Amino acid sequence: xxxxxxxxxxxxACVLACGEVQPLDAPLxxxxxxxxxxxxxxxxxxxxxxxxxxxLLVGKSHAVSVAPLPLGETAAIAATTIPVxxxxxxxxxxxxxxxxxxxxxxxAPHGLVVKGKGAACSVQWTPAGGLLSTRLRFGxxxxxxxxxxxxxxxxxVFGAESLDDVSGCLAALGADAEASVRDHLRxxxxxxxxxxVVDAARDVLATVLPADWEVAVAVGAGANPxxxxxxxIGPDDALIEHNGAFLQARIDLAVxxxxxxxxxDQAPPExxxxxxxxxxxxxxxxxxxxRRSVAVGGAALGRFAWAIxxxxxLCRGNAPGLEARLGPNWAAQVAPAVAALVQPxxxxxxxxxxxxxxxxxxxxxxxxxxxxxxPDAQVEIAAPVDGVELVVLRISGTLRIVxxxxxxxxxWSIEVEAVETDSVTVDSPLVALGTVxxxxxxxxxxxxxxxxxDGVLALPPGFPALVGTARAGDGLWxxxxxxxxxx
Amino acid sequence: xxxxxxxxxxxxxxxxxCPVGTSxxxxxxxxxxxxxxAGAIPRLSGxxxxxxxxxxxxxxxxxxxxxxxxxxxxxxxxxAEVSYVAGEATEDGIPAGDAVDAYAAxxxxxxxxxxxxxxxxxxxxxxxxxxxREQVVAIAPRRPGDRLAIRLWNGLPTxxxxxxxxxxxxxxxRAVDGSWSVEEVPLPPDVDGRVARVGGTxxxxxxxxxxxxxxxxxxxxxxxxxxxxxxxxxSRLVGRASDGVSDGIDAGRPCALTRDTKAGLVVxxxxxxxxxxxxxxxAAGAATDHLVDDGAYTVxxxxxxxxxxxxxxxxxxRLANGALAVAWQDASNVRVRLAVEAPGGALKQVTLPxxxxxxxxxxxLAHSDGALRLTWLEPDPAxxxxxxxxxxxxxxxxxx
Lengths: 487, 400
Prior knowledge:
The complex is a heterodimer of chains A (about 475) and B (about 400).
Chain A: H1 6-13, E1 21-23, E2 33-43, H2 44-58, E3 61-66, E4 69-71, E5 75-77, E6 80-93, E7 99-107, E8 110-115, E9 121-127, E10 130-140, E11 146-158, E12 161-164, H3 177-208, E13 216-219, E14 226-233, E15 240-242, E16 246-256, E17 291-296, H4 298-310, E18 316-317, H5 322-326, H6 330-334, H7 336-339, E19 348-352, E20 358-364, E21 367-385, E22 388-408, E23 411-427, H8 438-453, E24 455-456, E25 466-472, E26 475-481
Antiparallel strand pairs in A: 1-13, 2-16, 2-17, 3-6, 4-5, 5-8, 6-7, 7-10, 8-9, 9-12, 10-11, 13-14, 14-16, 15-16, 17-26, 18-19, 19-21, 20-21, 21-22, 22-23, 23-24, 25-26
Helix pairs in contact in A: 2-3
Chain B: E1 22-24, E2 31-33, E3 45-53, E4 57-64, E5 69-76, E6 79-87, E7 100-105, E8 108-115, E9 120-127, E10 130-135, E11 144-153, E12 156-163, E13 169-174, E14 180-184, E15 199-207, E16 210-217, E17 222-228, E18 232-238, E19 251-259, E20 265-271, E21 276-283, E22 286-293, E23 296-298, E24 305-307, E25 310-318, E26 324-330, E27 335-341, E28 347-350, E29 360-366, E30 372-379, E31 386-394, E32 398-399
Antiparallel strand pairs in B: 1-2, 3-4, 4-5, 5-6, 7-8, 8-9, 9-10, 11-12, 12-13, 13-14, 15-16, 16-17, 17-18, 19-20, 20-21, 21-22, 23-24, 25-26, 26-27, 27-28, 29-30, 30-31, 31-32
């Protein structure tokens, strides 16, 4: 599995824990599938970004080598090099789900030398702008493998052109000479440019519509990896569709995990069909040439949260540097009785989820947020007491954790932004707490939960950068950079 | 309002800030007298040592914050006696520190402590003629750190101590003529080339002509063992940068040390990464590592298995019958736990008497009659020092 194929798996599984990726021993049962729970999306503007990326990859200017062209037995057009430039590019989705790429091709007026028995003479070729068009598709081959394939040979159509034969060189060579020269020049340009464009288009499309997003893998270290299975769905020759606002490829997502002992055995949440809103969310500002999007439906997210919980990935401890997050007076602000005993030093914490989480996507400032509601959870906070690390506070109840998924340079990070409590109890195994300041509890929990769960995700090198997030209905919309290296 | 001292007319006292001879009473908020002698048992704070005195007696040596003194609390049955080793409660009147360790053999108690007021290392000895105290001047100009251990090595009082500020490890030996010699333990750098230093705990054990020190090395997160017979041999036994077992974990903070019946090294340590208490047996260049407790418990209401913080304080001893006993801190429940090696070699947890009080810092002592003494501290909820408590365990009678 290459780098891009890990995208879907890692963007979900690595939200909380990464690890080794291994093939699944057997397909997951249909009951675990969230139908079309994930969509690979290219909005109309992103489609044009794909076209622009193809143009950039091919290069804007080309020197097309033209071989000598014999004209009759005594004359010939000399070998030459014609400067060609690629102009505006566009990509659209045809009614038959073909991806239609068009590029404007411009050839500068070019003088040609005609060599014969007598003195050489010249003609001037002045082609009007040409339009190169090609059609590709994203589908399955007869063996079921996904690929971007060329539907038909590319076509390059020139507009009106002129071949000025002022000195009558060509006219003297016969009636077909001018037509031969025109065909020779067009073929040279078409042959060179079209080949490069098609190769580039296949590369770019294979990157933004990666076949290897179809996976069946187990992700995570230890005995409780999360099984993730994805499959593009639709007719073999039309795995994409366009609704007027964006192209989308539908992906079935199935997740499962063996139950970790630290959690209860609970059935997965319901997973129905997901309707992606017709309009894409407003794209984030940025100078990216190429972007693409992944949208994950609310039900699929719920299933994923269930699997993460079931695999024990929420049963976590250790929060390096927690004491710095908490500040020196954290105990006094929450429970003065504890403050009388706690010494400065390393503070540790451990989080135990209770029931399976309810995960919702909510609007946040500059992007979406993931709201995890965790019933019957428990947080233990340990601190030095008389030189020994002891649990000094236990907070139990339902917690609502709001976290943001962000791109930080090339890395992805998860950041806990807020923690709210619902009917929590606070106690200490060390001392009778007496008064607990409820206003100080939320900041304390936020620091602790952030200390445990915040972090840069362990993604493979070359992983696409996360450009932004948004809420899409009840789902999560992730903008990614295109993953195409600039030439 | 600034409470500069323990008591003011308009304020409540603060633990640790009452005048010498008094302690802060949480209920009244006043500094109340703690009279030396007269049967009062001082409360302790910080590390303490547990030493055997006679067949069934024991002594606890620790720092009494209310007295700003190092004290020896001797217990035998219902009898208790307190003597003052160093600090304001003694004739010199200079506060002692809470860096202290002690060892007893043949009725003689050897105590090492650091006087933090001038960063000096001291040695005290109590025998039939009473107490003698002396400064270990040979350690100067180095300043002793907070980690120290005292044992008899080749019959001579020997103090291992780290150096304040840089964590270097030194061993001071008192010759028969009363002079001290000091040598630095050559600690090798870790795999990244960082200079090793002592952190966490420092413990010592002697056997025949050798002395072994074990400590946590914070740079590599390693449990390091240094043994000196003819020369020093230092090994990172467990940890992230170890050359031994269980590589990749943060191990050894804290740790405890003893010997098995075949003179093999036995180290009980906390695997902090894995949140577990483990027992490492090392002999003839081979090491085996055993899980003692991973803190797993079942939540009664749900059946889910959670894990308590365990091993934040640890001790290990070998009983008279050769069996090992390990005591450790259950930090989540603030209770001490005890396991004793069964005839088959497995460590079996011992049920201890229930208590409503918090229990901290377990220490173990093997009595010569085959019994085991487990002591711990019961912290005062107001932070005014801790009361010492103990149980005696025997193979037949259990804990009582």
